[in-house]
Structures
1.
Amino acid sequence: MSELKPRKDLLDIESLSLEEIEYVLENAVPFKQLFQRSVKKVPTLRGKTVLNLFYEPSTRTSSSFEVAANRMSADVTNFTVSASSIVKGESLLDTIETLQAMRSDYIVIRHKAAGVPGIVAQHTRASVLNAGDGYHAHPTQALLDAMTFREVYPDFAGRKVAIVGDILHSRVARSTSTLFHKLGIEVGVLGPGSLIPEGRHDFMTRFRTWDEVFDWGPDAVYLLRVQMERQEGQFFPSIAEYHKMYGMNSDRLVRMRELGAYLMHPGPVNRGVEVTDEAMGYEKSLISTQVENGIAVRMAVLHWLKPETQKD
Ligand code: CP
């Protein structure tokens, strides 16, 4: 594997250089090859501890980090927020101080408030990995999306990806679009006007209809979940209306097949909202590959980051 100056934390995509992005994506490849072996473990993080701290629900990200850390022979602790002193009113900083005393090497954190992983990073010697904070960032999701897209399109520069759905509330949209843009991939967006932020990313082409998207000729369509839990107020008339206007249905699958476009989704999927059962069985869906690549990318990130605890 190639070498690069290590960094302590991974908090967002914006602060990553192209060299760092390439480093992680390249190093994820041999980790993925490991999954084909009968023994999928390497000793890279033997004796190191990884703490999974999820203040918001997660299936893919939390289990993916756990599998990644286990495959690197780290000791993993899953900290259950609902069963912790946090529900008794303990402050974030007091929790961090407690965790710091445990001398964890890596803290993987998801929180509903943007910026919390950054605060934790400032107050601990452990490496902090942002597993999603509010609307702000989900950097490992973006990296696994880039790895997945590059596997099917080794000539990825100049290719086109349409992101469809709730862009406003999506940390995935923010991180993945930023990373794709850095890699020279064109990004377009489609969704209800109320869920498309004005002026957030000037580099993205704005579409009003699926016809406009398909006429643009996307190489992949990236569907997003409507994040009801983050919406205060009504952003579109009804779920049925949303599905009709923006969901991936039979007619749109016909256009996808004509274009040879791939389908991506970060999960969790809401069938009947952004996607039909039929579309979930689309032969060019990359959704399972995204999950598999998530483990490889997170192994590559854990391999790269260097906690200050390792100076001891
Ligand atoms: N993609 C993603 O973040 O999924 P989870 O919410 O299940 O972790």
2.
Amino acid sequence: MTMPFQPAAFPYARPRRLRSQPWVRRLVAETTLTPADLIWPLIVHDGAEDRQPVASMPGVFRLSPKEAAKAAVEARDLGIPMVALFPNVNDGLKDNVATAATDPDGLIPDCIRAIKDAAPEIGVMTDVALDCYTDHGHDGVLEDGRIVNDPTLERLAEQAFIHAHAGADAVAPSDMMDGRVQAIREALEANALSDTLIISYAAKYASAFYGPYRDAVGSSKSLTGDKKTYQMDFANAEEALREVAMDLSEGADALIVKPGLPYLDIVRLVSQTFKVPTFAYQVSGEYAMMQAAFANGWLDPDRAILESLHAFKRAGASGVISYFAPQAARMMG
Ligand code: PBG
């Protein structure tokens, strides 16, 4: 004898009601993404050309200070609150202690001033780290084959001072030395720059996804070895909490988790634990992967870009540093 099957007459709970029309989807959306959530990273250079393409990052150009100022105006017009500067300096300027990193008339101070002239209402954030200026491509000073922590701190503090003095609104240490936030905070306080934000790359992992960036800033050809003695091990999550707690106690105002999409668990953990503005960095390798898929017609750019950026908001990020920032802001506009 077969069992009579009694299907329910109808489901009572129908989550699809809340998805049935665009207006209701908008009404119940738990998170939103707007241009105000974006930070646009700009690669700047001291070369002769105004714009120089970066091979591994289609759509990204190394910009002269003049072009960087134009980009800042574009950011302002798109409603993007801040740009972040990363330098590609001439190889001839590079040495072991990153002398060029603290030149008050160097590339980054030049760009800060050009941007502040053209679009004073745009926030300018700078990268504090030595790798773009060292002949070995590491973020710190190299002695007997080791990256030495404390001598590096002095260099970073001076670099942050130079940037803030030139008008940077936020300095963002990405070097992962111990105690760098405190060293930078003390230097800023001592030099009447106490309003400068420190947005710390508190949880920064040693990652393969930085490859295209190192090509963009010109450090890949010189980098010897890897950065595993200072950047975090991708096996670890709880260590991120310790790094963040330290940076906050040393005077950081906001945090960055880096890379982005592969580290959404860390974004969630850090933002929920500390309730401090937390930014995610959708790094160069993530950008390159997506551009490669777009070029092949394998992914729809508009949909994939907005979905990837929105994921960071859902994970708890206050905003996203992304090379897609202008393109995404245009799509939202
Ligand atoms: C280094 C720095 C890196 C990035 C920003 N600052 C790379 C590294 O640590 O080697 C990566 C950014 C990106 O990949 O988009 N100070």
